[in-house]
Design brief:
heterodimer, A: 161 residues, alpha/beta, Beta Polymerase, domain 2, five-stranded mixed β-sheet, two-stranded parallel sheet, 9 strands, B: 406 residues, Cytochrome-c3 Hydrogenase, chain B, three-stranded antiparallel β-sheet, 16 helices, 8 strands
Chain lengths: 161, 406
């Protein structure tokens, strides 16, 4: 399913900084947007009567490794009334990765963004409750980063077994 | 001194250091208090811990603390070939493994571009075992929910009937709960001889039992009074909160991925998508959620009957049928990102794959779990209620902590 003209036009209109790039390899087709434009694009796609992406299915963090030097966050949107799929991708630098939160648009972003933060250390600015969610609060490091190595001991229990 | 043997050193503040309370007891008003519910409590369905801010018996806020069953699924998946991830997928939603396997296998088949090329018999067997497992999962949901509310009998009845399903699935796959039966591109084995007939017998056996269940639980006055108008989830909040599955349907939206996406052979099958109608109270209350599950069991039985007919008729067993014929020897998908979703008993199970095109190990495999997302609306719908109703709401969400924490 190609990214329809109307979605592309909407996204282009919302992008103030960098025009969106279409990723044809992804399924569903993805739009790569700049971090600064993410909030505006998401708001536009959610509110526009032509698309009405009312459901945020999945928020995924991806670490491309130290060699690539980037991390990504992928948002899978779905529109129930129009049966449309769309993936939004944002590429971030590996250190000090920051993104605006989408909790203002979709409540489901709350926990899913917390999980991305927990696993990758990507901070979501404006998030109402940016705590770790799956790992203990006093755990060191973000486990799904490619360069992660676990701590030696946690509460006097040897972590490596 | 740290030691190498696994020994837990007790500190009085261990719990608060690893999972700090969100509310500070010192800043509370004089009538407020914090009640800690779980993680070890039968009504929290596993290791769910809730920090509840109470005013007398009224719940003012709920903060779920999760992660007690975190088994690093996504980290494991990044170090194993695609086909070896399936046993880990089983352990996500451990009461409905077949459904999760089906979703995962479908995703990898789509990565490889062999989706839709599988023999029809394989697809029908997959749907059949998945629907059997869906019934078993709903049995647990309804049975344990009844027990939360105080109805003990339906739990025993449903556990007894679930046993028939587990034995059938054990017969097919060799395991009672964690099957590893659906493989990428096929199945482990074809169904054992006589399975279809036994499945038909089971359908005949279970239908009157469901009528009994309806009388003893759903129409029960105590059950209705405990669940009707309790924990009403409005549709707009449900969609905005990403809620899927029976919980979304109970809020009134006819949305089932088996219909919407029409994956596998579901477009060829005839079944209804039940929705909540607010028969006993408001649309989207706890009673509706339970009622939708019971109706879904009826629909799954309809699907099963059609599968039995197909598997003994049009796609019947032949001597030369090899369910592993399409299983790829080498799984090396092209570099791509892919999101796949399927309807499991709790809702939309999604997998996000990133393949790098160079190896048979996923570069990234994210599991979008429905219990996790469904649980996240709990604080929204449990403000200003009684604590007894909070227990009723947790049970009606039907969370499996294995899937929440992954």
């Amino acid at each position: 399913m190609p990214v329809s003209e109307s979605i592309l036009t909407l996204a282009q209109a919302a992008c103030q900084h960098t025009p969106p790039v279409v990723d044809e390899q992804a399924s569903p087709k993805a739009l790569i947007v700049a971090a600064a434009d993410l909030l505006a694009v998401a708001q536009q796609l959610h509110a526009s009567p032509e698309t009405y992406f009312d459901m945020l299915s999945c928020v995924t963090g991806i670490d491309n490794g130290a060699a690539a030097g980037t991390m990504e966050v992928a948002y899978n949107l779905y529109s129930i009334p129009f049966n449309l799929h769309l993936m939004l991708k944002v590429v971030l630098p590996r250190d000090n990765a920051e993104l605006p939160t989408l909790t203002g648009i979709w409540k489901t972003a709350d926990w899913q963004e917390r999980e991305v933060f927990d696993m990758y250390g990507i901070r979501f600015t404006g998030h109402p409750d940016m705590r770790r969610i799956l790992m203990p609060e006093d755990w060191e490091g973000h486990p799904l980063r490619k360069d992660y190595s676990h701590q030696g001991y946690y509460r006097d229990i040897k972590v490596a077994y | 001194m740290p030691t190498d043997n696994i020994q837990y050193k007790s500190h009085p503040d261990n719990l608060t250091r690893s999972v700090p309370y969100k509310f500070n007891a010192e800043n509370l008003r004089s009538e407020e208090m914090i009640v800690n519910l779980g993680p070890q409590h039968p009504s929290t369905h596993g290791v769910l811990r809730l920090e509840v801010l109470m005013d007398g018996e009224i719940v003012k806020d709920v903060v779920p603390h999760i992660g007690y069953l975190h088994r690093c699924f996504e980290k494991h998946a990044e170090s194993l070939p695609y086909n070896q991830v399936i046993p880990f997928v089983d352990r996500l939603d451990y009461v409905a493994s077949m459904n999760s396997e089906h979703a995962y296998a479908m995703g990898v088949e789509r990565l490889l571009g062999i989706e839709g090329q599988l023999p029809k018999r394989v697809e029908y067997v997959r749907v059949m075992v998945a629907e059997l497992n869906r019934i078993a999962s709903h049995f647990i949901a309804i049975g344990t929910y009844g027990m939360d509310i105080g109805a003990f009998t339906p739990f025993f009845w449903l556990m007894r009937d679930r046993e028939h399903i587990l034995r059938m699935l054990e017969w097919a796959s060799g395991a009672r709960l964690l099957y590893n039966y659906i493989w990428i591109g096929g199945l482990f084995y074809d169904l054992p001889i006589g399975f279809e007939e036994r499945c038909q017998e089971f359908i005949t056996y279970i239908r009157p039992k469901l009528v009994e269940l309806d009388t003893v639980l759903l129409q029960n006055k105590i059950f209705v009074q405990r669940t009707a108008n309790v924990g009403v989830l409005p549709l707009d909040l449900a969609i905005n909160g990403g809620v899927t599955g029976p919980m979304l349907r109970a809020s009134g939206l006819r949305f089932d991925l088996r219909r919407v996406d029409g994956y596998s052979v579901y477009p060829e099958l005839d079944f209804e998508v039940p929705v909540g109608e607010g028969k006993m109270g408001a649309v989207g209350d706890c009673w509706d959620r339970t009622s939708v599950r019971v109706q879904e069991i009826h629909e799954s039985l309809k699907i099963l009957e059609q599968c039995v007919a197909k598997l003994t008729g049009e796609h019947k067993r032949t001597r030369d049928f090899d369910p592993q014929a399409m299983v790829p020897k080498k799984i090396r998908p092209k570099a791509q990102d892919l999101y796949v979703r399927a309807e499991i008993p709790k809702g939309e199970l999604g997998f996000f794959f990133r393949a790098d095109g160079k190896s048979d190990v996923p570069f990234r495999c994210k599991c979008r779990s429905c219990s996790f997302v469904n649980l996240s609306v709990l604080p929204e719908i449990s403000k200003g209620i009684l604590i007894a109703d909070l227990i009723a709401i947790i049970g009606s969400i039907d969370v499996v902590m294995g899937e929440v924490d992954r």
